[in-house]
Amino acid sequence: MKKLLLLFTIAQCLTSCNGQETKKMNNKMEKIVIVKKDTIKINEFNLNSNLDKILIPLGLNKTDNNNSEYNLNLDYEEFSFSPNQNFQFNDLNLGKISSLIIYYLKDNNSAFTYELELENNNNCELLIGEFNKSFGKPTFYKRNENTKDRPIFLDENGEQETQHIIEELIKWNDGRQNVSYFVIHKKNLTINENKLTVIAVSNVHEKYAEWIDFRSLNMAFPK
Question: At residue 102, does pLDDT exceed 90?
Fold first, then answer.
């Protein structure tokens, strides 16, 4: 009888322990699910400063780089944010982004540019509106329109593009932060697709002229 009672007691303890362990695991899983993502406020990036000064306020460091590749033959490196973060410019939530990359020098970690891409995102024009609010009238604006009857673009095969595409080239200058914003906004009305590329470059960084040339920005945005 005593032996049966002892076995029953042990079984009860095991059941109780397993229940507590399951409860703890479930609680842990619930915490993982409800964790709020940090919001990345792009307008607060301070170019021409140490990369750490940009990342630390966001709770990030270089090990959080979404890009695992390393440039062996170049003097700069890139920090790529995970597209699964929440991104804002001013108070505008950008939604799903394609990429956001900060480029910085290897020797002193100074950030000189960031590049943002939105693709098939309904917030593209809203972001352009935020640039207007923040920086005023653009210093450059050009609108190109491609149609089947008036083709001005070439497709991926080098032939005249027949789809209806509107391209806007816009440049702003942020005099307070000494940063130039180059924006390329393409809308393909034929297949209902859009793409927005933002290249923000520090005007006072030693890499400015080289990056403008590297990205062929002087060709698209002539002075």
Answer: yes
What backbone torsions phi and psi does residue 122 show, to the nearest 5 degrees? -75, -5
User: At residue 105, what are phi and psi to the nearest 5 degrees?
Assistant: -75, 145
DSSP letter string, 7-33:
HHHHHHHHHHHHHHHHHHHHHHHHHHH
Residue 56 backbone phi and psi in degrees, to 5: -55, -45
CA distance 43 to 195: 20
Q: How do the residues of the chain divide into helix, strand and coil, expressed in percent and rounded to 5?
A: 30, 30, 35
Q: What's the CA gap between 97 and 87, in Å, rounded?
A: 8
- Neighbouring CB atoms inside 10 A of 209's CB total 11
Cα torsion angle, 99, 102, 103, 106, sign: negative
196 beta partners: 118, 185
What pLDDT is stored for residue 3 in this prediction?
Answer: 42
The model's pLDDT over 131-157, given as tens digits with 9 standing for 90+, comes to: 999 999 999 999 999 999 999 999 889
φ and ψ at 133, to 5 degrees? -65, -40
What pLDDT does 12 receive? 47
